[in-house]
Amino acid sequence: MPVLEKEGTQVWRRRTRGEALWRWFGWLIGVAVFAVCWQQISASTTWFFVWDAPRIADDIWTRATPPRWEYITQLGRPIWDTLNIATLGTLIALFLAVPVAFLAARNTTPSTLFVRPIALLIIVSTRSINSLIWALLLIAIIGPGVFAGVIAIAIRSIGFCAKLLYEAIEEIDHGQVEAITATGASRWQVMAYGIVPQIMPAFAGVAVFRWDINIRESTVLGLVGAGGIGLQLSSSLNVLAWPQVSLILLVILGAVVISEWVSAKVRGAII
Amino acid sequence: MSHRELDDMLGTGWRKPHFVRNPVLRWGLIAGFVAYLIAAYMTIEVDWGRVYEGLDRGWQFVLAFTKPDFVSRAGDIWEGLLESIVMTVAASVVGILISIPIGLGAARNIAPLPVYVICRGIVAVSRALQEIIVAILLVAIFGFGPLAGFLTLSFATIGFLSKLLAEDIESMDKVQAEAIKASGAKWMQWINYGVQPQVMPRLVGLSMYRIDINFRESAILGLVGAGGIGATLNTAFDRYEYDTAAAILILIIGIVMTLEYLSGVIRARVQ
Predict the structure, then answer these.
(1) What is the C-alpha separation between B182 and B185, in angstroms, rounded?
(2) Span A133-148, mean pLDDT?
(3) Backbone angles phi, psi at B20, to 5 degrees
């Protein structure tokens, strides 16, 4: 414990002088970095617009209220598309995530040296790229539409689902697997009777959790042309139809709240 | 299991128990699911000819990953990446600073009811709105540029961090906080010595995680004009410059992996 000698009495200190200096130095660098970053942002901002912002915000608010309620009749199909993108995307992702997860889990992978790194690379690379970017890419490749959205959501979800699943697989109770092996079961039978029942609740939980996130993400995929309600949002924004924009935002908000409620209910029932 | 039950089951074959016990519910779920799949499949229009055509382009994109082009658009990539990083750093700092008081206010065991309700309201609003939609609105209000992206990320950080911080404070050990209070500490001292040491490790871990998320999100904000690498990426896709797009994606994946590794190291050290 660092103690400072001061006029004959000992005074307790939390850190030694060296530690305190290092800390002070770290804070100094942190503040300096933040200042530089802020300067960069400030330099590329048109401050006139910012000072004008309250008036603009007020203007947009008056244009956007009240929402154009009768527009909702045209939103049925986009909402159905959005639901399809999220659900089918989640399904495809789960199909692909299961093998990846088994290959990535330390206790089920056939080879920790070759196969596991590849599976981990798939997980990291699909996870670190946002679904909007995947959608952008797929639109360039297979053309705009709902299908591109489904695939984009599917690819983006593989990493997420596989990561949570392989963590669940690594945490299973080994005794059960051993018991099944001891009965003379083959490798596949061990999987079906020893491992799968143990990760089933985790699997169902991950599926519903990801579906909830995917509903959120698929509402905005249309902004880049991948179908769903985002398409309506983007076209309304382009023609500055603010009453329609506010209605669409309300619908998206409703969808997000409902999906979160459903997901919480289902997960509560499983666990 | 009683004797009688065991006797009844002797001699009969064993069957795997079903995941959903109730047969009516089980078959209902399966039938509903199949009906949904059919309906979804009927309504999705896929232009298979277009998809087939695109396979060639998709293959070109995969090939582009083997020879990414960092050079010919180096200036744009560097500028966009720097802007993304600047936005991430500034937004994380501001977001974390603001989310600490809101997190304190959203913890029921610390805050009085009115403060609690207000802070929880802020958290709910911030979590319900997605980054990209907030970014669209902020770009409309503040104009193009990284300021809108910075504000978006700060706003999203507040919802994420305050909620998790508040949950951590609510589940803290009351005894330590009470001991500090009993020593006659003022409110600030109580928070500083009774509460903060308990939640600090988790706060650091969550902050690191949020920096990671902020960088990933900053990569897409450029799509709607809120600054960052997204605009460069979008242009690269629009011009079918797959090698440049591949280079940008590789950079994003690399930075995300580095951040994830760093946050893992830091989290392991503080916990």
Answers:
(1) 7
(2) 86
(3) -105, 115
Instruction: Give the pLDDT of residue B58.
Output: 82
Q: What is the mean pLDDT of chain B?
A: 86
- Measured distance CA(B139)–CA(B221) in Å, rounded: 10
Q: Which of A44, A139, A197 sits opposite B146 (nearest CB)?
A: A44
Evaluate whether the domain defined by B78-270 bears CATH number 2.60.40.10. Answer: no
Q: For residue B121, which amino acid is it?
A: G
Check CB contact under 8 Å for A130 and B219: yes
| Interface TM-score (ipTM) > 0.90 | no
Q: Which chain A residues are within 8 Å of B234, Cβ to Cβ?
A: 136
CB proximity list for A187: less than 8 A, separation 6 or greater: none
A49, A129, A140 member nearest B252 (Cβ): A129
CB B245 within 8 A of CB B65: no
Chain B residues near residue A137 by CB distance under 8 angstroms: 61, 237, 245
Q: Do A41 and B146 touch (CB under 8 A)?
A: yes
**Domain limits of chain B?**
15-43, 78-270
Backbone CA torsion sign across A191, A197, A198, A202: positive
Q: Residue A208: CB partners within 8 Å, gap ≥ 6?
A: A262, A263, A266, A267, A270
Query: Is A92 in CB contact (< 8 Å) with chain B?
Result: no
In this predicted structure, what is the pLDDT of residue A88? Answer: 92
**Are the beta carbons of A77 and B39 closer than 8 angstroms?**
no
Block residue for tokens 């001991």: B179
How many angstroms separate the CA atoms of B245 and A155, rounded?
17
Helix (H, G, I), strand (E, B) or coil at A3: strand
Say whether residue A252 is in contact with chain B using an 8 A CB cutoff.
yes
Q: Is the pLDDT of residue B3 over 90?
A: no
Q: What b/e sequence results for B196-217 when a residue is b if at least 16 CB atoms lie within 10 Å of its CB, and e otherwise?
A: eebbeebbbbbbbbbbbbbbbb
pLDDT tens readout for residues B83-139: 999 999 999 999 999 999 999 999 888 888 999 999 999 998 888 888 888 998 898
pLDDT computed for residue B165 by the predictor = 92
What amino acid occupies position B256? V
Residues near B30 by beta carbon (within 8 Å), at least 6 away in sequence: none
Interface test with B, best of A132, A167, A245 (most B CBs within 10 A): A132
Please enumerate in sequence order all residues whose Cβ is within 8 A of that of A135, keeping only pairs 6 or more positions apart, or say none.
A148, A149, A152, A221, A224, A225, A226
Are the beta carbons of B142 and A237 separated by less than 8 Å?
Answer: no
Q: Could A132 and B220 be called an inter-chain contact, meaning their C-beta atoms sit closer than 8 Å?
A: yes
The DSSP secondary structure of B123-148, one letter per residue, reads HHHHHHS-HHHHHHHHHHHH-SSHHH
Q: Which residue of A has its CA nearest to B42?
A: A84
Write down the pLDDT at residue A1: 59
